[in-house]
Amino acid sequence: MTTATDIDKKKPLAGLSESGAYQKLLAFASLIALLIGFSIASPNFMQTSNMIAILQATSVNGVLAVAATLIIITGGIDLSLGTLMTFCAVIAGVALTYLGLPLLLGVAAAIAAGAFCGLCSGTFVAKMKIPPFIATLGMMLILKGLSLVISGTRPIYFNDTPGFDQISRGSLIGEVFPALPIPNGVLILFLVAIAASYILGRTVLGRYTFALGSNEEAVRLSGVNTDMWKMRIYALAGAICGIAGILIASRLNSAQPALGLGYELEAIAAVVIGGTSLSGGRGTILGTLIGALIMAVLTNGLRVLSVAQEWQTVVTGAIIILAVYADMARRKKTG
Q1: Taking the chain (335 residues) in consecutive chunks of 10 residues, what is each chunk's mean pLDDT?
Q2: Distance CA 115, CA 15 (A)
Q3: Top-level CATH class of 18-334?
Q4: What per-residue confidence (pLDDT) applies to 17?
Q5: Residue 191 to residues 66, 81, 100, 243, Cα–Cα distance (Å)
Q6: Which of 102, 176, 203, 244 has an alpha carbon within 20 to 30 A of 209's alpha carbon?
Q7: For residue 139, what pLDDT is reported?
Q8: How many angstroms separate the CA atoms of 1 and 327, rounded?
Q9: What is the pTM assigned to this prediction?
């Protein structure tokens, strides 16, 4: 029988399998192909300002995708990611604009709100045994309503909070290297990705994340409190959504309470494109980042080519279907 100690010592080999490496390589090749294709189709695509716009867009979706990766590796799904991001942005607006708290406290309040909401979702799934799809769907509606109620259905602006807009739009790298005006939001994305990758690969929480997705019942029978670990994972994902909320509010210099729906779909698509299995037990943060870049490049490229917004939505939906189908085919092939 597998013991809790055995699980602690195991490495998440499922997340580093050959099929996962192949999927990341395929995703990276697709990203390069998209960049080349759009560059040929439009000379404006490879302009520095457009590349920065792509990176800026990736920063928000990428952070959300990192949160989604943690949940999906456990075999779950979270449909509340987008509205949770918006809710955290609204909380930051209340703390900084309405209450006049210092910048760091406002940011901390948003992240704490995200962690608490994630913990609630985890409790619904782990303790109340509600299927993740239903639990997070309910949380999505709750957070959407609360965002509108708390904000009075009006945007909250951060004009009186010095430095808030620089969290996402400023460039610490650009100050040192003027030729590389990479936004701070991108830097934050990579810091979040590095931290999440370390957690998945080097900590007990990461090992249990993979173990829950591989065989939760075996983990439970080994004497592990799977409910507690699952709740912690959802709470961590919620805190990461809080960071995404700060990034999008900083980019817009406002908290838009009606924003958020649809972001979770792009995040999930990025995760699956990057090689994370919807059945759980396998996935990497690097693959997710590549998937997020693919989604951002595709959206931006279609916009540069003046493709109508409705057709952009059609393409996004088609990509989600293809990504899920590819995941199913990959699972069937590996048995």
Answers
A1: 46 44 80 92 88 91 97 95 97 96 96 98 96 96 96 94 93 84 94 97 95 93 94 98 97 93 89 88 92 92 88 83 77 67
A2: 25
A3: mainly alpha
A4: 44
A5: 11, 19, 28, 11
A6: 244
A7: 97
A8: 30
A9: 0.90
Q: Tokens standing for 258?
A: 């009606």
User: What six digits make up the tokens of 299?
Assistant: 């959206």
Contacts of 214 (CB under 8 A, 6+ apart): 14, 280, 281
CA distances from residue 253 to 14, 49, 163, 175, 318 in whole angstroms, order as listed: 41, 20, 10, 21, 32
DSSP, res 159: T
Rounded to whole angstroms, the Cα distance separating 140 from 153 reads 17
255 three-class SS: strand
Rg (CA), the chain: 20
Residues 6+ apart with CB under 8 A from 263: 60, 61, 64, 81, 82, 85
Beta pairing, strands 254-255 & 156-157: antiparallel
Identify the pLDDT of residue 219.
92
Residue 15's pLDDT is what? Answer: 39
Whose tokens are 């990504």? That residue is: 323
The amino acid at residue 50 is N
Contact 241, 139 (CB under 8 A): no
Integer Cα distance of 217 and 227 in angstroms: 11
CA distances from residue 89 to 36, 122, 237, 291 in whole angstroms, order as listed: 36, 21, 16, 24
Sequence letter at residue 125: V
Token look-up 């995760």 returns 271
* CA–CA separation, 5 and 289 (whole Å): 32
